[in-house]
Structures are given as structure tokens and as C-alpha cells.
Amino acid sequence: MTETVNVFILAAGLGERLRPITDYIPKPLLPVAGKPVLQLILERVSLLSIKRIGINLHHKKSVLETWLSSPALRDRITLFTEQEILGTGGALKNAESFLADGTFLVHNADILSDISLDGMIEAHRVSGNLATLAVHDFPKYNNVSVDAEGLLTAVGSHVIEGRSAKKMAFTGIAVYDPEFLRVLPAGSSSVVGAWIAAARLGHKIGTFDVSGCHWSDIGTPAAYASAVVDKLRSEGETVFIHPSAEGCRNADIDGYVSIEEGCVIAEGAGLRNCIVLPGTRLASNLRHENCIVGPDFEVALKEKEVLPATEDAHMVLIGSGGSDRRYYRVREEGDSFVLVKYGPDDRDFHRHFSYTSFLSRQGIPVPVLLKVDEDLRETVFEDLGDLSLYSWLKCSRPEEEVEAVYKKVIDIAVMVHTRVTRHVSECFPLAERLFDYEHLRWETAYFMENFVSGIRKMRTDRTSRIEEEFHRLALQVDSFPKTVMHRDLQSQNIMIKKGMPRLIDYQGARIGPPAYDVASLLWDPYHRLDDSMRAGLIDYYIETMRVNGGDYPNEGNFRDMLLPCRLQRHMQALGAYGFLSTSKGKTYFLKHIGEGLRLLKEDAYLAREGYPAIYGLVADL
User: Deepest in the core among 244, 335, 464, 476, taking most CB within 10 A?
Assistant: First the structure.
């Protein structure tokens, strides 16, 4: 049985470097994409085998006490109110009776990380250390000296031993034996002084190297904003909008934006790379860029302080999709454009710029191609901003507004399926690229390998029957009339620029059944459409194809094609989520599996008479 530990969270600080933000909200309650920092820490430590959790309070203690008084927390947490701030050492001494019955973990309330707390506690237990400090190589904060055995030899100018050592940074997380409390003086003190004193008395003050782990210290406005952006990127998002926020549909949103609880956004407000703190009301027609906005203040930031760092001061890394390509926003002379860097084995490099030129000539709204460098394998495109249809849909909107945008996307799809198809001979790389039986069979094999076996770890004794039905499904879909198709027409590949949709990620376009595009758009795991709206949009597609002279079978036949294409498409999508999350480490795709699987189960149920083995397989997932 795993030995339990106590946890103590240091949450009393004034947060002076964060003012005026912390004059409004205490640092532990700063929201990170909808969750206060303290909640994120509590969720992490709650995964440990713990006895009790202690938290010290001082600054805005009544606000924290109210937040911590919820029934879910009340019985698990003991609060230690400090009339005067006691410091990192004094806080532990003040809670000595609470912490004295065994090993305890101390965690600063302004730290977010993915450090293995279990691993750290276990390393401490077997080390013989009085204290074990989580440290990492973080040059900006490196002031802790650690010898070859991992023992502390100095902190700043406080030298314990003169042995050879390397500089590391303390993460704000440590594990202690209760005997450490005896070294702490009564009253206010810093824990650093106790480390030094204990080491000089012959106790082992050890370290646990967590270099390479994700770590954020939210002690400054820039660090806080960077932590929010890191959280969004780790979840594959650019926008967070709290369900209680009002009016965001009226705002011009771009870049990384987090709109927190109880916010009200007035007509015409502009937001780019902004955090809007809880309860803030934004005035109409005002633009906020690279800042943190509160009810009566705005803290300006520099874009490079917030966004992922690059070697070039004029560039910032953008995008968080499934591609291995790197996308950068480059700013020059007040303008911006997108630089795309391709790997040496990226076979879509030439297709990307040749398809762009061709589609542009046919009037398809794709980003303007500005430059190609074949030696460096780089392209430069018009900057369409960061607002995808997927992010645009996060704002609560009237049904008619959502339907209107989807109709605009369908208008573009119809142009691809008609006008572009009639001229495809002008683009040889596209004209020869078929979405045929071979590719369809590749998709189902991809699904079996990366989702059925990879994610679900499932083996089946019906392999031959399933493979025979995959064969028949591929033959059926391959038999459908073919046009040029986007092939991945879903909400993350549609950008919204000045209210108008623009296509991206079309370098995978092929000659195949347009019903596959319609299935991708209207049965999209990234956004669930209302059934009645979907039915109306199918009607709209069929009528728009007819008006534009689409060489297509009658309406009934087209509707019959949708289900096999849905079945095929959702297997492909789940295979992609499995591959990207496990092989590529992009675990944020896992969150889309639930909706993808729900859609596939619906497809398989409707197709069960023609494909009973596929239905049985999917029902077991």
C-alpha cells in the first residue's frame, strides 16, 4: 500500500509583481482557460495518496476562503490564516502540528507544471534526504548550486560546501521529512535559510532534477499570460470562452484569447492575444491587443513575452494542428504574413504552392501565395489571422448566424466540386491524385492500427469478415461519381477573416466523391450541428450543386452516398486522433475521440444491415 503524505500549498503572498491584477483578484485564483491556478494545483495533488491538504492565506483571504468553502473542498482542506505574512519558512512552522505526522509535499500556489509528483515523493523516500527540492535547468532563474550527487551546495551567495556544482533553478515544489520543521525558527522566515541551516548541521538537502518538464511561474503579468497561452496550446486551442460570457459573437477575435467567467463583450470590441479577467465588461468599438484586461485596468504586454519563443525577434510560432510543418507569423513594417517551413520529407511542399496558385485562379478563397523558396523549402502566404470556424463557433450565436456561415462554406465546396473540377487538367499534380479504392483501404487500415489496436487496445476474432466489409465499403465509395474534393473539410481547416470563410490545409485535395467533403463538414467531430440545421444544409448543397451545373446524380442517390462516406470518414478521423496523440505526442486530439466515436457508432448502426461486421466492431469500441 502506498504511504500517504500531507500537502501544503503556499498561497498567502501579496503578488506584488502582478499588480494591479492582484489588487482585484488573488494570485492563486487567477484563471487559466477557465480554471483558477489553485484549482489546477489541487487537481494535480489530489491524484496523490494524500492524508490532508493545508493552505496558508493572507492577501485577500476572505476571497480565497469563500472559494475554498465549497462542499467538495471544505472537508479536505485546513486553512492557516496569517495576520502578518510569515514567509515560506514561517508558514510551515505555523502549521507544524498539522505537518508533523509524516512526509509532506510543499507546492507554491503560483506554479503550474507536469512534474511527476509521485516520482519525486518516491525519490525522496529512498534518498535519506531531510528535504528534496524539485530543480531544473532554467537559466533565467538558476541560482541553486547542486553537486554531482544532487545535494544542495549553495543558494545564491549562501554557500554550504565549496564542492564543484552546477547551477539549477528551484521550481517551488519540495518534499520534506517532518524533522525539517525543527530547523525552522519561530515567527517569520524564509525556507531557504532553513535549507542552509539544516545542511550545515549535516542533514542532506537533496534535489530531484525535472529539467525538460513543463513549468510555469505566474509571478508576473507576462508569465501569467504565457501560462494561459501554454495551456491553450497544450489543448490544441487558440480561444477559450467561458460559457457564462456574453456578447463575444459581436467581437473581432484573433490570436490567443481567453474570455473568463462573467465577462460582457460590447458590440465591435476587438481582442487579439488578450486575457479578459472574470467580471470584466469591455466597451464597444475599442481594440485590445497583447494585454490583460480587468474591470478598470489594462496591463500591456509585448507579443514576444506571451507567444512561443523563436530565434527571430520578428517571428512568432502559430498553429497547433496535426501537421509537422511549422507556421510562423512574421511582422515587417507594420504588415504581417505567414512563413511555412517544410521538413525534407514533406511530400506536400510542392502540392501546397501549386494547388494554391490553381485554386486562386479558379476564385477559391485560399490565402494568397506571396513567395516560394524551393532551396529552403519555405513558402510565404497572406496572413488570415488565427480565428478558425472551430474557434468562431465557441461563441454562443443564433442558429441563423451559424447556418449562414455554413452556407458560405458550402458555396465554396460547390465551387470546388464544379468549377475547379472542370479546370482540373490545368493542375497536373491534382488531376492525377485519386481518392480511390487503394486510399480508402489505407484509411480503414489506419483506423484499425491507430484506434482499434492503438487507442482501444482491442483485438478481434472477426478480422476476415471485417476486412471483407472494408473491401466492399471501399468498392462502394470508390464507385461514386468523383470531383475535386478538399478531403479534410472540417471546421479547423476553415478560417474566418472579416466574417468570410477561407480554406486552408487543402494540399491533401484529391479526385474523389464530393459526398465525403459534405460528410466531413456536416458530421464534424469538432463541432456538433443540430440535426435540423444539418438537414437544411444538405438541401442547400444539393440545390446549389444543381444551380451551378454540378454533374451529379439525382438527389436520392446523393443522399444514399452520404452514409458510406460518413462511415469511411469517421474511421479515418479516429485513426488520425490515435496516430497524432500517440505517435506525434499531440495528446489534445484525444478530447475529440468521444464525439468522433459517437458519430461512428451512429453511422455503423444505420449501416448495420449492409455492414454487420463493421457494426459489431464499432459497437464493441
Answer: 476
Distance from C-alpha of 567 to C-alpha of 556, rounded to nearest angstrom: 18
Q: Which three cell numbers stand for residue 360?
A: 486562386
Kindly state whether residue 385 falls inside one of the protein's structural domains.
Answer: no
C-alpha cell at 322: 496535426
Grid cell digits, residue 519: 460528410
CA 437 to mean position of chain CA atoms = 35
- For the chain, percent helix, then strand, then coil, each to nearest 5? 40, 25, 35
Block residue for cell numbers 473539410: 489
Q: CA 48 to CA 64: how far, in whole Å?
A: 23
Domain match, 11 and 129 both: yes
Q: Are residues 212 and 229 in the same domain?
A: no
599 and 521 within one domain = yes
The three grid cell numbers given for residue 99, joined into one nine-digit string: 505537518
Cell reading at 362: 479558379
Whose cell is 487579439? That residue is: 272
Asked whether the beta carbons of 260 and 241 are under 8 A apart, the reply is no
Residue 171: CATH number of its domain: 3.90.550.10
Total domains in the chain come to: 3
Q: What is the DSSP string of 231-243?
A: HHHHTT-SEEE-T
Would you state the pLDDT for residue 304? 77
Burial of 277 from C-beta contacts in 10 A (0-12 / 13-18 / 19+):
buried
Largest CA distance in the chain: 88
What CATH number should be reported for the domain holding residue 495?
3.90.1200.10
130: amino acid identity, one letter: L
Q: Does any domain span residue 378? A: no
Note whether 16 and 61 are same-domain residues: yes
Query: Looking at the domain assignment, is residue 441 inside a domain?
Result: yes
Give the start-end residues of each E strand in 312-409: 315-318, 326-332, 335-341, 369-373, 378-382
- Give the pLDDT score at 30: 96
Same structural domain, 233 and 171: no
Integer Cα distance of 575 and 557 in angstroms: 28
Residue 87 Ramachandran class (φ > 0 left, ψ -120 to 50 alpha, else beta): left
Q: Are residues 261 and 184 in the same domain?
A: no
Cell of 103: 512526509
pLDDT at residue 106 in the model: 96
Same domain, 436 and 548: yes
Give the DSSP letter of residue 424: G
Q: What is the DSSP letter of 51?
A: E
C-alpha cell of residue 192: 531557504
Q: Is 47 exposed, middle or buried (0-12, 13-18, 19+ CB in 10 A)?
A: exposed
Query: Exposed, middle or buried: residue 329 (CB in 10 Å: 0-12, 13-18, 19+)?
Result: buried
Residue 468 CA to residue 124 CA, distance in Å, equals 56
Residue 320, pLDDT score: 59
**Does residue 94 contact residue 80 with C-beta atoms inside 8 Å?**
yes
- Cβ atoms of 537 and 494 within 8 Å: the answer is no
Question: Which uninterrupted H or E stretch holds 464?
Answer: helix 463-479
Among residues 217, 232, 248, which one ends one of the domains?
A: 217
Q: Which three cell numbers stand for residue 245?
A: 460570457
In a domain, 572, yes or no: yes
**CB-count exposure of residue 155 (10 Å: 0-12, 13-18, 19+):** buried
Angle in degrees, CA 11, 105, 132, rounded to 5: 120
How far apart, in whole angstroms, are the C-alpha atoms of residue 192 and residue 154?
10
Q: Could you say which residues of the chain have pLDDT below 70?
A: 1-2, 71-73, 161-164, 308-314, 320-324, 550-555
Domain that holds residue 268: 221-306
